[in-house]
Amino acid sequence: MSAGEQIDSLRLATAGSVDDGKSTLVGRLLHDTKSVLADQLEAVHRVSTARGLAEPDLSLLVDGLRAEREQGITIDVAYRYFATPRRSFVLADTPGHVQYTRNTVTGASTAQLAILLVDARRGVVEQTRRHAAVVALLGVPRLVLAVNKIDLIDYDEAAFRTISAEFAAHAAALGYASDAVVSIPVSALVGDNVVTASTRTPWYAGPTLLDHLETVPVAPDPHDVPFRFAVQYVIRPRTAEHPDYRGYAGQVAAGVIRPGDEVSVQPAGLRSRVTRIDTSDGPLDEAVAGRSVTLLLADELDIGRGDLISDVAEAPQAVTEIDTTVCWLAEKPLRPGARVLVKHGARTTQAVVSELVVRFDEQRLVSVAAPEELRLNEIGRVSLRTADPLPVDDYAISRRTGALLIIDPAEGNTLAAGLVGVPLRALQETADAAEPAVPGLRDEPVTGAEHADRATASR
Amino acid sequence: MNTAPTTGTTAEPETVHARAATPNRTLSGLDTLESEAIHVFREVAGEFDRPVVLFSGGKDSTVLVHLARKAFWPAPVPFALLHVDTGHNFPEVIEFRDRLVAEHGLRLEVAHVQDWIDDGRLTERPDGTRNPLQTVPLLDSIAEQRFDAVFGGGRRDEERARAKERIFSLRNAFGQWEPRRQRPELWNLYNGRHRPGEHVRVFPLSNWTELDVWNYIEREGIELPSIYYAHRREVHLRDGMLLAAGPWGGPRADEEVVERLIRYRTVGDGSCTGAVESSASTVAEVIAEVAASRLTERGATRADDRMSEAAMEDRKREGYF
């Protein structure tokens, strides 16, 4: 086995307001970990010189689309890759504009850690609180606050402590334990505490950003929760060699499975026993969350794509009424009675949004009862009524089997991220004391600068 | 290979219900990537009517085919392979392509760029390079054969415009990619819905880096065309690249031909695929070289990607990979 096979990987997401220097920070991480190679760097130097800049603009390493380079903005989630001898990293770099909350949701959905950026001169702003709430809602286990541009406030310890304390209080309100949140004073432009420890912050004894990313425990997919496995595909070779082979292919979504384990199959409620866990490299003694395998069962059952194989003792209940928190990602607002498609695991079914229960103001952590509609980038709680029963779990317990996609049946666009239940305790508590909505009143205007999903406004 | 690798990390409970998990149950980075790619293959097989895998005989598409075989084992891969052949391929690569297809009982369809040139649907470029000419035969083949999902070996680490690419990438009826129209991609729930005439490009290797690919090739013992490893070849220097003579043309009068010990980091149209001087003759030596390399693979060896800062973005919009 080579060294490259041994190391683990961490998936992380970045979020920050416009102009907090996120592209520069990511560029700095890539540059200082030697993940930027000579030809890319040469291109950056060439363009920087052509623009008359004194220093190479590291944000050029990551702002990939021509429109972005021309306008100096980032318009979509970009994925970056860097590695050190200790760990490899997949970084979802998400833009910080208000109207791009959808990108924060996207990046956070697979992240094990989120880096939030603030400008040391401005401290924790509304967007920081919004981004932290979205990241918490999506169940990202760990947070890092990068207090950037620390050079512009003369490496002032008191200012850093104030920002750090304010953020810690907000993270605690969102349900984060104190050891899951770290604040680091950095200058992405100059390089302080990103990869190299700064001599200009002697009052800071903590790790550099990269040290922290390399050593923070990787939160594994949960193994000690009940077993869940969505059947994606039924493998039936019908060859001379395997005339009667019938395997259920999928990826373990939660828990662990071993040969001999009793399982139940939802939504039909059938029972059987796992006889073998197959891979093309041979059978496995056990399969853990995240691994793609093929299960063979003791009984001849009618099982197909979309069914869920699960732990017998703690099988999920297949339901058609689902209390769901949604992050609305489409330009077309959501109104009660909307007909949608819902994808859960490997099953897609028709559904109706029967009720808009509340709209959350995730920045102030309060909620408004019975809103008329949910608009782009708003988060709320809805009741879904599905045509087929879905064996869902609470998102707070299982990020994979508690997640839903909400899709436009006509256009095919993804309209919303759905999270079963209300995963954010802070929001749940205020939902019970929600104020009725005042029609037309919003805390902030929703800009129409969203170009992603051109949904039809009316039918 | 079937033992869960130990990573030495202390597992953290991700949920309120999780007790401390066993440390050695964390999948390694490579296992995570493999499982993710297999999941993508099965998702497409379950949701699409006519998927096809683009296969050129290069290292990324060879890894792609390896993963497809793993995803459906012991059943055969339930879709065909498609090669858009520029006619400017290295003979070693074509030989390898045909042998791999025969060995594993796969179905290969070839769209020859030459046919499009012969009947006037395409015109040869003055510079002789045929990589950009692949787009039309690809889109024609997709339309003619009604492919609704097209697997490619594209990776997001290859180039800045690709960093924005989704694993499921919707293309309109003209095969075009619109960066602002990409759907948000959440968790591992992929949305493959499309209207008649549209198709979805699918990139199972999205999260792999060049080094991941080579580490996987080593771990799985995947065979590649011989030109990926060091060999002696007559080359000539053009635009800072070492090019080999072939049906696509040879050295100009003012270009000196020299014999060098070289290998290829990417395999494309021979007119614009440069070699690198290398003595790496085994996978392990290639890994060591890639890890130490100071040039990204495309920047070092592919003239077509150096055309302009926005070259790749423009070509993706046209329907290129």
Automatic annotation (TrEMBL), chain A:
SUPFAM superfamilies: EF-Tu/eEF-1alpha/eIF2-gamma C-terminal domain, P-loop containing nucleoside triphosphate hydrolases, Translation proteins. Residues 435-459 are annotated as: Disordered. Residues 7-221 form the Tr-type G domain. It is an enzyme of class 2 (transferase). Coiled coil: none annotated. Keywords: ATP-binding, GTP-binding, Nucleotide-binding, Nucleotidyltransferase, Transferase. CDD domains: CysN_ATPS, CysN_NodQ_II, CysN_NoDQ_III. Residues 441-459 have a biased composition (Basic and acidic residues). It holds the Pfam family GTP-eEF1A_C. Its EC number is 2.7.7.4. GO terms for molecular function: ATP binding; GTP binding; GTPase activity; sulfate adenylyltransferase (ATP) activity. The keyword Lipoprotein does not apply. It comes from the Bacteria. One of its GO terms (biological process) is sulfur compound metabolic process. This is sulfate adenylyltransferase. It comes from Actinoalloteichus fjordicus. The lineage of its organism: Bacteria, Bacillati, Actinomycetota, Actinomycetes, Pseudonocardiales.
TrEMBL record, chain B:
Its EC number is 2.7.7.4. The keyword ATP-binding applies. Residues 51-274 form the Phosphoadenosine phosphosulphate reductase domain. Residues 1-21, 299-321 are annotated as: Disordered. Keywords: ATP-binding, Nucleotide-binding, Nucleotidyltransferase, Transferase. GO terms for molecular function: ATP binding; sulfate adenylyltransferase (ATP) activity. Gene3D superfamilies: HUPs (3.40.50.620). Residues 1-13 have a biased composition (Low complexity). InterPro entries: PAPS_reduct_dom (IPR002500), Rossmann-like_a/b/a_fold (IPR014729), SO4_adenylTrfase_ssu (IPR011784), Sulfate_adenylyltrnsfr_sub2 (IPR050128). Signal peptide: none annotated. It comes from the Bacteria. One of its GO terms (biological process) is sulfate assimilation. Belongs to the PAPS reductase family. CysD subfamily. This is Sulfate adenylyltransferase subunit 2.
